[in-house]
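Key result, reporting period 2: structure in, sequence out.
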């Protein structure tokens, strides 16, 4: 018997309806969570005297056998010839197979349980593992970013606003911004995990059950902090998934920005970086091409993850309490978002590790484009000129430099003096690239001392997270 609910029906389900309704094609990946949940449920029923010890033992052994056979391939989840399944969903698959294997005792497993709280539990277990896995992947990426930062505190480069050169900075500082974004992403995943870690099993179909279940026991056996509080909410809450997909969307958005950055830096015009051959692809027609496809794909895949989040938000928005079949639509977007982010994060980390930074090109670029104009104005301020006047003086000076095709530091002192008599010989040192960067000492700035503090704090934070992971 493939269906769990034939009793009140007088007709077979229409074949198209069955195909439309079935979810095993995608929820089959919950088999391990489903079996784990069932084992704990059965054990609890035994402890509470709801099931006999023999039945419990038979169920547990039967479930162990099913798990082993699924994992070895002896028990395929889908029919290997047709590619479809006679079972409606993974819950029916496991329960029906259990009954086939152990008979009567198997029919007692579903006592005090509904597929509504069962699927709520399975998805939560699956999501919790995915959150933990994603945290680990993020830590590896953070490590890759931090290592590049630590090696590049003296790699000078321009910082941009409006994609126009603004002020000089270092690669360590630049990448530090991405470290911070990803660090917050990691924190968001931790928050999500803490909020979702409550066990919905025992909520029944929606209103609990008349059996004396021990929900606290089940929760603790499955590693939850506690049982959920309201049984209707327990079977109809998908907030934790939405929260996780939002977190994944933000992570992907950050990776997309990072990708865009690298794509620009890798262009012939910038040549700040060279992607490793192993992480680039060529063109079928243009022999000279070496394209940053990994970055472009990561940037492109963000759309899928946003779409997954939107699908689920939209699926949930009009649902009255409690369970509605619409909720079965949570799985494909969730799995797609998880698979996408899980693939992008480590690939991105490996790609980063193999990038070559063209330090000379970056430094030269930092010296052009008047990135020291703010410092030249600040120089005059130190000499007593009000900032607004200094801004005007340097603006006129830049105009002259553009005319002459020179940098501010290339004008002789006499010429500088025609703009302000406050200019002295020490101006050249004050507006040199190294001074411009290293004088920036406010916390969070690229100056050597500030950066050393940022790096030490980041390293200590990362070490602490790795220890708790
Ligand atoms: N396949 C269903 C889902 O994923 C399982 C829950 C079915 N519950 C029900 N009352 N039909 O949501």
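The corresponding designed sequence is given below.
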């Amino acid at each position: 018997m493939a269906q769990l609910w034939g009793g009140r029906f007088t007709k077979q389900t229409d074949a198209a309806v069955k195909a439309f309704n079935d979810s095993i094609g995608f929820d089959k990946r919950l088999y391990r969570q489903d079996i784990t949940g069932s084992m704990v449920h059965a054990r609890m029923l035994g402890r509470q005297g709801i099931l006999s010890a023999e039945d419990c033992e038979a169920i547990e052994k039967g479930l162990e056998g099913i798990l082993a056979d699924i994992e070895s391939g002896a028990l395929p989840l889908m029919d290997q010839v047709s590619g479809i399944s006679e079972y409606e969903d993974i819950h029916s698959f496991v329960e029906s197979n259990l009954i086939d294997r152990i008979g009567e005792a198997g029919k007692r497993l579903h006592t005090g349980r509904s597929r509504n709280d069962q699927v709520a539990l399975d998805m939560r277990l699956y999501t919790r593992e995915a959150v933990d896995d994603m945290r680990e992947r993020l830590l590896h990426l953070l490590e890759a970013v931090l290592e590049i930062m630590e090696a590049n505190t003296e790699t000078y480069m321009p910082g941009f606003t409006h994609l126009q050169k603004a002020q000089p900075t270092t690669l360590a500082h630049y990448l530090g911004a991405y470290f911070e974004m990803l660090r917050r992403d990691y924190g968001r995943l931790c928050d999500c995990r803490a909020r979702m870690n409550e066990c919905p099993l025992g909520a029944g179909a929606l209103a609990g059950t008349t059996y004396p279940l021990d929900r606290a026991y089940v929760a603790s056996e499955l590693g939850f902090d506690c049982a959920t509080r309201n049984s209707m909410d327990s079977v109809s809450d998908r907030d934790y998934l939405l929260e996780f997909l939002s977190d994944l969307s933000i992570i992907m958005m950050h990776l997309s920005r990072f990708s865009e950055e690298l794509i620009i830096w890798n262009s012939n015009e910038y040549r700040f970086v060279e992607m490793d051959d192993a992480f680039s692809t060529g063109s079928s027609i243009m022999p000279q091409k070496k394209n940053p496809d990994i970055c472009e794909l990561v940037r492109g895949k963000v759309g899928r993850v946003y779409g997954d989040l939107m699908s689920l938000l939209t699926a949930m928005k009009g649902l009255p309490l409690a369970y509605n079949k619409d909720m079965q639509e949570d799985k494909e977007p969730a799995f797609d978002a998880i698979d996408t982010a899980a693939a992008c994060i480590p690939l991105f980390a490996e790609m980063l590790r193999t990038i070559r930074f063209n330090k000379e090109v970056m430094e030269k670029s930092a010296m052009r484009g008047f990135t020291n104009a703010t410092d030249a104005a600040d120089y005059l301020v130190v000499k007593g000129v009000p900032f607004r006047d200094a801004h005007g003086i340097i603006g006129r000076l830049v105009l002259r430099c553009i005319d002459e095709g020179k940098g501010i530091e290339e004008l002789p002192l006499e010429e500088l003096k025609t703009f302000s008599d406050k200019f002295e010989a020490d101006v050249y040192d004050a507006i040199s690239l190294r001074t411009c960067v290293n004088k920036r000492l406010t916390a969070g700035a690229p100056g050597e001392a500030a950066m050393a503090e940022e790096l030490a704090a980041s390293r200590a934070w990362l070490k602490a997270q790795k220890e708790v992971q």
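Residues 15-111 form a domain with the Fumarase C; Chain B, domain 1 fold (CATH 1.10.275.10). The longest strand covers residues 164-170. This case is discussed further under Risks and Mitigation.
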